[in-house]
Design brief:
The protein is α+β, with helices and mostly antiparallel strands. It is built from eight helices and four strands.
Length: about 300
């Protein structure tokens, strides 16, 4: 886990200079062409820079160990970064709409289109490779901030491809109003991506349960490793960035000693931590008369 945490933080750091470089390329492409669609694409890339910086700070804070004020750790800090990124995406979309409306009222002829589109295309290729790296690492190491950054960059790639294709058509058919219309389409896509980033992050802030497949896996582990206990019930899970929390009540025979029940709990905790990365386990032991019909029968 420590190696994964270090890799996540390194990727978050390198996202900052890469985002700055891509933003510079896109603004050069806009400056050469005067295209509102390319300007909207460049404007969205400014969000990438701010989001990359926010993600780096949040990931560093989230990796701090638990302390007196935060006994469960700082893992949720990544979700705040992801929510901020979603809000910034929405702001960028509104700015793009403003520019697009102005372009529809007074369309501008595109200049030096080939060079501008080539520069913008190279920026899209760089973004595409980096988005793949971030999304893959975010999923593997369960980093909400890294995943949100990767998905936003991927949406930026889709936007760039659409803009380039649309501008080629606008130039071929000599329709300058297609340029601001493309910018409006970009804005709609950006708004959609921003809403998805915000929604997924709010789930983590609201203590959303872990993936159903992982929950089934946890139930199976408890059933397989709780030899000597009667039942497990009130099994609850929640996720917080790279860490999952599970707590449940373990019913044992009322005459069992504390040491015997503690041995079962140790075995369960070790099995869960061995099979599920980054899991924290809380077990409440109860006597036999507390058994419930809806619990996981272990015998």
């Amino acid at each position: 886990m420590a190696g994964g945490a270090n890799l996540v933080r390194r990727l978050a750091f390198w996202s900052i200079p890469l985002a700055l470089g891509v933003m510079a390329l896109k603004f050069v492409a806009w400056f050469l062409t005067g295209s509102i669609a390319l300007y909207s694409d460049a404007l969205e890339s400014t969000v990438n820079v701010i989001a990359a910086l926010a993600a780096f700070i949040a990931i560093g804070y989230a990796q701090k160990p638990a302390d007196t004020d935060h006994p469960y750790g700082h893992h949720k800090a990544e979700y705040f970064s992801a929510v901020l990124e979603g809000v910034l995406i929405v702001v960028a979309a509104l700015l793009i709409v403003h520019e697009a409306i102005g372009g529809l009222i007074a369309p501008v002829q595109i200049e030096a289109p080939a060079l501008g589109l080539a520069i913008n295309g190279s920026a899209a290729v760089i973004n595409g490779i980096w988005a793949y790296v971030l999304i893959r690492a975010g999923r593997r190491y369960r980093s909400p901030a890294l995943s949100a950054d990767g998905h936003h960059i991927l949406s930026d790639v889709v936007t760039s491809v659409g803009v380039i294709a649309g501008l080629i058509l606008a130039i071929m058919f000599d329709q300058p109003r297609l340029d601001p219309l493309l910018a409006l389409i970009v804005a709609i896509n950006v708004l959609w991506q921003g809403s998805k980033v915000i929604a997924s992050s709010i789930g983590g802030l609201m203590d959303q349960a872990i993936d159903p497949a992982d929950e089934i896996r946890i139930h199976d582990i408890i059933k397989a490793e709780a030899d000597g206990a009667i039942e497990a019930h009130d099994i609850k899970t929640r996720m917080a960035g790279q860490v999952s929390f599970v707590e449940f009540h373990l019913v044992v025979d009322g005459g069992m000693t504390v040491e015997q029940s503690h041995t079962i709990c140790d075995r369960l905790e070790a099995a869960l931590k061995r099979e599920v990365d980054g899991i924290q386990v809380i077990i409440h032991v109860e006597p036999g008369h507390k058994a419930k019909e809806e619990g996981v029968q272990l015998g």
